[in-house]
Fold each of these.
Amino acid sequence: MEIHAFTINIFFTALILTVSAAAPVDVVLVEFLLSGQKTATSLQFSAPTLDCVEEDLKAKYSGIFNISRVRIFDQNITTCDQLSQKSSFWATRFYYREVQNNPVMIFFAAGCNNAEASLGSLARAWNKPLMIPVNGDPSVANKKRYPTVTRISPFIQEDLNSAMHRLLRMFYWNNVTILCDDADDHLALFVPMCTALHDSLRLTYNISSSRFYVNASNADDLQHYLEEAKSISRVILLIGHGSRIRPIMLGAAKAGMTNGEYVYIAVELYPSRKQLGTLQWYTDNKDGQDEAAKTAFRSLLKVSLRPTERTTEYLNFMDRLKNRATNYGYFFGPDEALNPFALSYYYAAAILFQVMNETVSKGNNLQDGVALSRLIRGRTYDVMGHTVAINWNGDRDAQWIISQTDPSTGDFRPILEQATFNGVYNLTRSYGSDGTEQRIVWYNSNHAPLNEPRCGYRGLKEECKAESFAISAMIVGITVTVVLVVGLLITLIVLRKSIWEALRRA
Ligand SMILES: *[C@@H]1O[C@H](CO)[C@@H](O)[C@H](O)[C@H]1NC(C)=O
Ligand SMILES: *[C@@H]1O[C@H](CO)[C@@H](O)[C@H](O)[C@H]1NC(C)=O
Ligand SMILES: *[C@@H]1O[C@H](CO)[C@@H](O)[C@H](O)[C@H]1NC(C)=O
Ligand SMILES: *[C@@H]1O[C@H](CO)[C@@H](O)[C@H](O)[C@H]1NC(C)=O
Ligand SMILES: *[C@@H]1O[C@H](CO)[C@@H](O)[C@H](O)[C@H]1NC(C)=O
Ligand SMILES: *[C@@H]1O[C@H](CO)[C@@H](O)[C@H](O)[C@H]1NC(C)=O
Ligand SMILES: *[C@@H]1O[C@H](CO)[C@@H](O)[C@H](O)[C@H]1NC(C)=O
């Protein structure tokens, strides 16, 4: 009986292997998307990317995989909150209806924390790979809990927080104020970024952080929070739309806070005038304050993701993508690029198919999502001429650039680069086009601003009190002496006069 079953089993396995060698394997890509353009990975950005993905994969793997695609979305579901109510239901319904015919399925998440966590649990139960773009929830990084999840986009929260912490540590800055401006937050990025940064600096990195929500276009409000910041820190982190940074820097100049004693660190994740705005002092001098703003910007450092390399493949892809996007009602600006979060869908698919092809070639099981996800980790991939590094935890490592303005031209130029791979962190100086190291130039000073001035933030430290007491005592002393001397002289003159007169009378 047992031997008989064993024989049948072998026979079936052999049959499947023969068949799969001959016919392409059916693979279905399942996309859960948010409609609209309210997040960096909403349908208007990610759908055209995923369309190009399908075309390229079909061309590359034609004899090997028979690729089909299912997009699950709802016209009326445009925010992560709305999606969190739906995504498990959508996934479950799709899975049980389709899994019989399409055992090899791959999920692409929408880029929403809650939805990713619940999809992650289902993907584990079904043993299917789940590729996620943005991830704001550190718990999804726990791959013991979510063994089939690969996080393929830069992780704006944890990655940004640790990049910021490294920058602060480099200059011994321990006390920071975070000013958050949530105006024009088209992609709903700034508020979560502020919260995560504030929490993680305090709780993970033991940095004393205070956070205020400020309205940069209201001068009184701005002055109020700058004064607050002044009394507790010399390092001020700015999170907000690019167009809000100039007014903040001008306000700081007005408050006497751009004299070189302060440093401002603003985040511009990637260049996108339309979505994130641009950090710039230059306005064609519309308000007559360009020079003042240019000087104020000398106290500013900018933290950005390392820009996407403009390889030939990438430029071709962007042309196709911009065309595609018009089908979805989105029109890219002339110098607008695809954001790195939506671009990560392309990397995700390219990487997964490379690993699936290896798996098929070795005759291994494509239905084992845990095994596929493990195979992805701890490697670098070449996609469109870009090096994409996935660490041992199945997360993509981000690379950051820190820039400051050139004192003469006022253009931003990179000064430091941070790269991490597999937990090995590398900080390097940037090099100019002439091959020389870019020096960091501190405004009005030959060293980085101190974390705390010698006399404290309010100039009230004990030793300074003693000093100022000594100084006032000295001033009182001098005044008293002057008064006494003058008094004596006057007395003398008066006396001389009276003596003279007395003599004349006599
Ligand atoms: C590819 O899959 C589709 C269904 O998804 C099917 O109709 C078609 O016959 C398959 N093609 C091949 C070559 O297997
Ligand atoms: C979307 O919402 C509108 C109005 O609330 C409703 O009329 C429409 O049927 C909804 N569409 C879908 C696809 O649910
Ligand atoms: C946190 O920082 C303070 C001041 O720099 C220091 O006294 C304290 O020991 C630090 N705490 C930890 C847990 O590192
Ligand atoms: C910010 O301040 C400006 C100018 O005072 C005002 O018009 C605007 O409504 C304020 N924005 C918010 C969100 O309060
Ligand atoms: C500055 O930070 C240290 C801990 O890093 C803290 O002990 C100190 O109170 C902070 N100063 C102010 C003014 O918040
Ligand atoms: C798939 O894998 C095989 C075996 O490793 C390799 O020869 C082939 O080039 C791969 N196909 C693609 C499109 O990468
Ligand atoms: C760190 O950066 C330097 C200069 O770019 C490079 O030579 C070195 O290999 C890097 N180290 C690691 C561990 O990546």
Amino acid sequence: MDESSSEWCEIPGRLDLSPESLREFAHGAVDWMVDYLTGLGHDPSGLVQPLEPARSIFDRFDEPLPEEGLSPARALEEFRTTVVPFATHLQHPGNLGYIPNSSGIVGIVADLLASTLNQNVSLVRGGASAAAIEAEVVRWLQSLLGFPEPGGGVLTSGGSVANLMGLALARERMGGGEGLRFYVSEQTHSSIERALRFLGVPGEAMRTVGVDEGLRMRPDALQKAIRSDRASGLRPTAVVATAGTIGSGAVDPLVALAEVSREEGLWLHVDGAYGALAAAAPSGAWMRAGLASADSLSLDPHKWLFVPIDTSCLLVRDPDFLRRLFNVVPEYLKVSAAEQQDVHQPMQHTIELSRRFRALRLWMALKTYGARSIRSKIEEHLALARMLASWVEAEPGFELAAPVETSTVAFRYGSPGLASGEASDERNERIFDCLSRRPGLFVSRNRLRGRFTLRACITHLRTTESDVRRFWDACREEASRLGGESC
Ligand SMILES: *Cc1c(COP(=O)(O)O)cnc(C)c1O
């Protein structure tokens, strides 16, 4: 490829692009992409996470601002040789950590197309088809989960932002002010506390309600807390339920919590960032009635619908109320009646103004996969989790740390056998550290009821039974190491 920067530079005044060299550059990137995606899945011995310490990786990227430009071909080469080797390969099928993110090729290519078209999905005039497609995929997501019509919603960058918006709606419904109370459980995701802080709600406004033996919020405890707060002159505002906790994939009893919320006049926000999409599958369909009773519901297609990160959704029962919250329109963003017709402007639904065309990935992915194959893929994940749970239960020395309701299996080794809780925690933490260093696996840590737990979460497009088997064999192997033996 020609390296002279004059041919390549896109800066105005030096614009001299040849379509051939543009194509060669882009094809080079696509070739890398296909090699990466097809090579990775076949390599259980490949490291998911680089072993090099973070500090030294940061030190590698410490160059001064380049004064003169490189050719794009050289930049692509640097990406290959310096970026990729120190990346975390979350696309690897051995990714069972946190809530695994994975993207199929359709969502990846859709991103390239979306960036090329570069729509600004704030006003319809920034991209009419993009705005219409966003409204369409939101309806498709509602339909996938049986979320009641009409309802509505908006795509967001992540579950944290969707949760923030859901809580902002709850506060708005109360008209703000002092003494607000938001009811969570000990398993509620940290994004809820962060959202409340961001909304300027004081710390004591977050009230933790007790859980049952399956780590699910107790409706009776909730009702009691609400009544006692009200009796003290406080203003119970919202119940924040979770459909699929990070720790064990637990699903709060949504229907019962909705009943309490309705009786007591509280907003019900359901954080389904991880687990709501389980309701698309036959064996997760029991969650649908609960999800349908939410006033606001967050879900993360970037966790369980095989599209790239930055694809999340907030669904609401009352889109008019959502639009009232964001109804600030300066003169320069006004749209004439003739232009407005009966469509809504995307900016009316969200705090963002300039927004990329993130709906395209979902639109293309849902079109090409079809709902049927998505349902069966999610079903497969739920079945893999039940299979892993059955192995854990059958293995002497291991025990489940919580029931398996979605696709997360939380467990530990040796708890009854080891003399103290601390000894058991130490042992499990060592197993976790050893698992983390293994090739072909990516795991994450947690504690449940104060005790260290091992966990696997299965939402990855490419994870199969053999990957789960590999993980489980590794757990047993690490557990069988003698006392001080290092990994
Ligand atoms: C992932 C997750 C979040 C946060 O979502 P992001 O997309 O990472 O911002 C919130 N709640 C739950 C239960 C989650 O699993």
